[in-house]
UniProtKB/TrEMBL annotation, chain B:
It comes from Brassica campestris. SUPFAM superfamilies: ARM repeat, Clathrin adaptor appendage domain, Subdomain of clathrin and coatomer appendage domain. Oligomeric complex that consists of at least the alpha, beta, beta', gamma, delta, epsilon and zeta subunits. Keywords: Cytoplasm, Cytoplasmic vesicle, ER-Golgi transport, Golgi apparatus, Membrane, Protein transport, Repeat, Transport. It comes from the Eukaryota. This is Coatomer subunit gamma. Its main location: cytoplasm. The coatomer is a cytosolic protein complex that binds to dilysine motifs and reversibly associates with Golgi non-clathrin-coated vesicles, which further mediate biosynthetic protein transport from the ER, via the Golgi up to the trans Golgi network. Coatomer complex is required for budding from Golgi membranes, and is essential for the retrograde Golgi-to-ER transport of dilysine-tagged proteins. Residues 592-614 are annotated as: Disordered. The keyword Transmembrane helix does not apply. Transmembrane segments: none annotated. The keyword Transcription regulation does not apply.
């Protein structure tokens, strides 16, 4: 029996329901057609709701789906019906993405930095198991992309420098 | 990928959104991927190409084996670059390409180098990639590094190794199990996530050792876990331990329960929710244990966060199914959620209220729901309709307002599934509550006047044909039915013709008029309609001798005695030959029941027991089946058929269950056998019954099953004689005997020679409850008072120590096999006393009513005062005897 919280998929759709990035961890949707059908169902079910201020939640086909909309980005996390809604909600990526896109989270920025989005997906869940929940840590780990550790400090932007500094600080605090 | 954009181009070119992936094409990107092979690696360019490849994969594009291999090989060259950003992308694409084992070799050395790199990020990611792609032999080579990584001082590295361990445990358990010591160390980590991952892995490693798990959980519940996620996990393990303990009859769950309760005061809401849910899901949880969990959930109901409200109302909704009284305290908060913006929350709130509501609040609730129904989607409406149906079964007296509500929503707009749910509900109510029949049928008639769904129209017409003729004024339905003949499509017209014929046959006074109507139908444009009309005209025209009457009844009202699925299979297997197809060769095991009945039963909440009409449908089937067997035809009227009792464990070679059929002088055991081995054919299947522990029974006859092919169930019967009208009890031991023949799986042909074999089945008991039929009364008080008070038998019993009142009540209900009335089988959460009302019909058709009063003292000793009224004094005495012996 498997008891650790399991995530079935995480989705990032645009304001028309088209897939920007998606990652499936369960075999419930074996083909791309099945995946697209699921995304369509999720999108049409949630489209009219207001998930801009608070994280919203709904149930679909024995799954629990938590979601939040930021600009024209629609974030979703799906888990089984026995899952803890609050655990799923803690896995919504919008905070980490917002950090990575320096507060300009929208579709255009997301597509321009799709590599960062993919890295973000990779850092939050590993094969359906929660890997990390802290948005700051995820953003740091994914954002390392643009930082060459050997590059001189002057070439880093202020925010990258801040991120590096924060990382050093947390490390030293944790020791 | 590009198409959506391309299409848009035609319409409004200027407004086209910018996308870096516009017009992207697999072939071109694969071309671009050649830059990976350049002598001088351009990290920026390469990263971009990898992103494009990942984008394609993510959009559902797939690479052929050759393409994937080619990309994989060129990607491996990028390990030369020192650029960390590029390296991260390389890790990602390797995972996505999931190379085959012979390809993996190429990257292992690079990845192993990264695993020992000074850069934490490299170490962590290299571990995750490597563990994703390697096999067992390679794993032993890197095992040493993985163990090191688990205790790495960087939490990211440590987590990466632990999570990889969780994945590897599925494929290489024996290797991962060797890491226990390191994993144990991880549990003590200061990092929240490491602690979580270590706990998950350690538990997974030990999961088959019940004692070890219980020890692990026991030691951790004393407070060394800080991370909320790990705490949630620990809660799940704790409830598993409690479940295991009670399954093995051990005591000592108290400290574990106390841990769950203490988690209700945790500062993280995630943990509080997990604990509350765990407590509500404990088996046999008492109301006192439930209360603290309900209290925190009630607080969540008024949270500003929708996720929290949803979680709470979803949990309470589940609790309401088993402990409706425990949830009533939340009703006020629940009612305010009906107007919640989030419709999922609102629907859950409504259905919870419908479950916890009492008789007096029904009207008020219905008013609130009416406003609510107009602005929710069909799928939510269906949930509400189903909740209303069970409410109606629970409070039969309130059928009027519930029926009005259902008929109103039936008139409104809605899709097929929704309308079907409503029609099903009305049909259930008509079956269960006789008083509701006439008004319900009229609502259905009105509905088919304007129904766009052929399926529903035909179902309703069929139902009308069965129920309509028995009403006080059958003629008023004729107009509705005949209108269908004018206005509908051929399928509905044909159904309407059949229904008319049933009226004509059942109601003598209507016969001439129906004949006229049917005569008009023989000019219909559709063959089927004309055929039916002609056929029924000749049936109705018969001069009414007894013989044709019987045939006609059979013809009009009898259903096909074999299930359609079995019929279909048999017909497919039938080779056209001299020998005619014999319908008696079709297996009769009832797998599926007629549609409306199946749904009505399937969705009925179990807690409400079976109202009279519902079992009758299964009962009808049995009655027909038994009377079709010549040996049993003379046994008279079937009194009761039990629900199937399993005689084998699940997933054994042969699955056998038994149905006990009780007659006045006889008992028939119907053994439903299923052969679950594709390579075997069983013949001459018989059940040998040893009745030495059932003195009053003597074996009369048995009917073996000739052939039992794979996965096509069949029945064997054994009949016993018993003293007339006496509720004889006893224990029977059963052995299945048969001849096994090997079947060639490729051809499906059986060998000629078989081997005799036998298979021990579990014992079977005939108990007093088998002689009692559950029959509910709509108004218990009236029924009780109409029985002679002087014939009342009262006695008191001590039931000993019980976990709860509910448990004691359930035991008594099961013992007597009677129908709880007016929802009295559910006990309020903190009650110390309770009255339960039961009704039933005892063998010999004697009506019995029972009023059982229960009381519990501080030491959980339960006493019961049992008052029985029956039409026959001796039966009342018999009931007391059952309880006294039980």
């Amino acid at each position: 029996m498997e008891l650790p919280p399991k995530v079935k998929n995480i989705l990032l759709l645009d304001s028309e329901g088209k897939r920007i990035a998606a990652k499936y961890y369960s075999g419930d949707w074996p083909t791309n057609t099945a995946k697209e059908a699921f995304e369509k169902a999720v999108f049409s079910k949630t489209q009219k709701t207001n998930a801009r201020t608070e994280v919203e939640v709904t149930a679909l086909e024995n799954n629990i789906i938590v979601y939040k909309f930021v600009q024209d980005l629609h974030f979703f996390v799906t888990g089984g019906e026995e899952e803890n809604e609050l655990v799923l909600a803690s896995l919504l990526l919008f905070d980490a993405v917002n950090l990575l896109l320096r507060g300009n989270a929208d579709k255009r920025e997301a597509l321009d930095n799709l590599d960062l989005i993919f890295l973000c997906f990779d850092e939050i869940i590993d094969g359906g198991i929660v890997l990390e929940t802290d948005a700051n840590v995820i953003a740091e780990k994914a954002g390392i992309n643009s930082i060459d550790p050997n590059a001189p400090l002057s070439e880093q932007t202020i925010s990258q420098a801040l991120a590096t500094a924060r990382e050093h600080l947390t490390r030293s605090l944790m020791k | 990928m590009a198409q959506p954009y391309a299409k848009k181009d035609d319409d409004h070119d200027d407004e086209l959104e910018y996308s870096p992936f516009m017009g992207i094409e697999k072939g071109a990107v694969l071309q671009e991927a050649r830059v990976f092979n350049d002598a001088q690696v351009d990290p920026r360019r390469c990263s971009q190409v990898i992103t494009k490849l990942l984008y394609l994969l993510n959009q559902g594009e797939s690479f052929t084996k050759v393409e994937a291999t080619e990309v994989f090989f060129s990607v491996t060259k990028l390990f030369q670059s020192k650029d960390t950003g590029l390296r991260r992308m390389v890790y990602l694409i390797i995972k996505e390409l999931s190379p085959s084992s012979d390809e993996v070799i190429i990257v292992t050395s690079s990845l192993m180098k990264d695993m020992n790199s000074k850069i934490d990020m490299y170490r962590a990611n290299a571990i995750r990639v490597l563990c994703r792609i390697i096999d067992g032999t390679l794993l032993t080579q890197i095992e040493r590094y993985l163990k090191q990584a688990i205790v790495d001082k960087n939490p990211v590295v440590s987590s990466a190794a632990l999570v990889s361990g969780l994945h590897l445990l599925k494929t290489n358990p024996e290797i991962v199990k060797r890491w226990s010591n390191e994993v144990q160390e991880g549990i003590q980590s200061r990092s929240a996530l490491v602690q979580f991952h270590a706990l998950a892995l350690l538990h997974q490693i030990r999961q088959n050792d019940r004692l070890a798990v219980s020890k692990l959980v026991g030691s951790l519940t004393r407070g060394s876990v800080r991370s909320p996620l790990a705490q949630c996990l620990l809660i799940r393990y704790t409830s598993q331990v409690i479940r295991d303990m009670s399954n093995h009859g051990q005591s000592g769950e108290r400290p574990f329960y106390e841990f769950l309760e203490s988690c209700l005061r945790h500062k993280a809401e995630m943990v509080i929710l997990e604990a509350a849910r765990a407590i509500t899901e404990l088996d046999g949880v008492t109301s006192r244990e439930l209360t603290p969990a309900i209290t925190v959930l009630q607080l969540f109901l008024s949270s500003p966060r929708p996720v929290l409200r949803f979680a709470a109302v979803r949990t309470l909704n589940k609790v309401a199914m088993t402990h409706p009284m425990a949830v009533t305290n939340c009703n006020i908060d629940m009612e305010s959620l009906i107007s919640d913006q989030n419709r999922s929350i609102a629907t859950l709130a409504i259905t919870t209220l419908l479950k916890t509501g009492n008789e007096s609040s029904v009207e008020r609730l219905m008013k609130q729901i009416t406003n609510f129904m107009s602005d929710i989607a069909d799928e939510f409406k269906i949930v509400v309709v189903e909740a209303i149906r069970s409410l109606c079964v629970k409070f039969p007296l309130k059928y009027r307002s519930l029926m009005t509500f259902l008929s109103n929503i039936l008139r409104e707009e809605g899709g097929f599934e929704y309308k079907r749910a409503i029609v099903d509900s009305i049909v259930t109510i008509i079956r269960d509550i006789p008083d509701a029949k006439e008004s319900g049928l009229l609502h259905l008639c009105e509905f088919i006047e304007d129904c766009e769904f052929t399926y529903l129209s035909t179902q309703i017409l069929h139902f009308l044909g069965i129920e309509g003729p028995n009403t006080s004024d059958p003629s008023k339905y004729i107009r509705y039915i005949y209108n269908r003949v004018h206005l509908e499509n051929a399928t509905v017209r044909a159904a309407a013709v059949s229904t008319l014929a049933k009226f004509g046959f059942m109601v003598e006074s209507l016969k001439p008029r129906i004949t006229i109507l049917l005569k008009r139908c023989i000019y219909d444009s559709d063959d089927e309609v004309r055929d039916r009309a002609t056929l029924f005209l000749s049936v109705l025209g018969g001069d009414g001798t007894v013989d044709t009457d019987k045939d006609s009844t059979e013809f009009l009202f009898g259903s096909l005695e074999v299930p359609l699925v079995n019929m279909e299979t048999s017909l497919k297997n039938y080779d056209p030959s001299e020998e005619a197809f014999d319908i008696n060769s079709v297996p009769r095991e009832v797998k599926s029941q007629p549609l409306a009945e199946k749904k009505a039963q399937g969705k009925k909440p179990t807690g409400l027991g079976a109202p009279p009409a519902a079992p009758a449908s299964g009962f009808d089937g049995y009655e027909r089946l038994l009377s079709s067997i010549p040996e049993f035809a003379a046994f008279g009227k079937l009194f009761k058929s039990s629900s199937p009792v399993e005689l084998t464990e699940a997933e054994t070679e042969y699955a056998v269950n038994v149905v006990k059929h009780i007659f006045d002088n006889h008992v028939v055991f119907q053994y439903n056998c299923t052969n679950t081995i594709p390579e075997q054919l069983l013949e001459r299947v018989n059940v040998i019954v040893d009745a030495s522990e059932a003195e009053e029974f003597s074996e009369l006859t048995s009917k073996a099953l000739n052939s039992l092919p794979y996965d096509s169930p069949g029945q064997a019967f054994v009949a016993f004689e018993k003293p007339a009208g006496v509720p004889a009890v006893g224990k029977f031991s059963n052995t299945l005997t048969f001849v096994v023949k090997e079947v060639d799986p490729s051809t499906g042909e059986a060998e000629d020679d078989g081997v005799e074999d036998e298979y021990q089945l579990e014992d079977l008991e005939v108990v007093a409850a088998d002689y009692m039929v559950k029959v509910s009364v709509s108004n218990f008080r009236n029924a009780w008072e109409s029985m002679n008070e002087e014939d009342e038998h009262v006695d008191e019993y001590g039931l000993g120590q019980r976990e709860s009142l509910g448990e004691a009540i359930k035991a008594v209900i099961d013992l007597l096999g009677m129908q709880p009335c007016e929802g009295t089988e559910t006990v309020p959460s903190n009650a110390r006393s309770h009255t339960c009302l039961l009704s039933g019909v005892y063998i010999g058709n004697v009506k019995v009513l029972v009023r059982a009063q229960f009381g519990m003292d501080s030491s959980k000793e339960i006493a019961m005062k049992l008052a029985v009224r029956a039409e026959d004094v001796s039966v009342a005495e018999a009931i007391h005897e059952i309880v006294a012996n039980g």
